[in-house]
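Ticket #4471: structure export looks truncated?
Reporter: QA, pipeline team
Priority: medium

Steps to reproduce: submit the single chain below to the structure queue and open the exported record.
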Amino acid sequence: MSATPPAIDPARTAVSVTVIDTERIEELPVRSRNYLEFVLLAPAVVRSPGGASSPGAVSLPSDSGFSFAGLRPRSNTLTIDGLENNDEFSGGSRTELSLEIVREFQVVTSGWSAESGGASGGAINVVTKSGSNILHGDAFLFAQPSLARFRGGLAFGGPLVADRTFYYTAGEQEETRGQSALRGLFPTSISETELS
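Actual output as written to the record:
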């Protein structure tokens, strides 16, 4: 047994990386169906004063909605499956996803790698689910009859070409006191696997 610490990896630039996996996403309560609420589980991340939307609101925040270690919310970057998803004018998210299509979050609070760039604050990478050879689906309904608020949706995935190309899609709709809003109607993930 050795008491020496592990060697420092000079190629690693990320000082703090938090992964929020599928189990935590499915089991932890969120005050809204906004998939970005889980970012608050990472250390040194707080909701920005004017950026967060109210519970159940469908509109996106005017900025990223989060402050990493006290930095401006516009200094963050949000990617979906590694693709940049920031609005260049407001710094907010360009695409709103259904929570049902999110597999995990990777939150880097400092030291974002240079090849991804664009974040002097923090970085959020949302990883979406992908299909498999087995057709799978989920349906849900959340209701608050006292507020006349209902949200329902479904998600399903499967093979387009067995053992090669898969899909996963999800959608949900919210209705509040006679007003209806669609959310994440066509967020679809398609993945392809090469067999050797």
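Status: closed, not a bug. The export was complete when the record was re-opened. Leaving a note from the reviewer for reference: The helical segments are 22-27.
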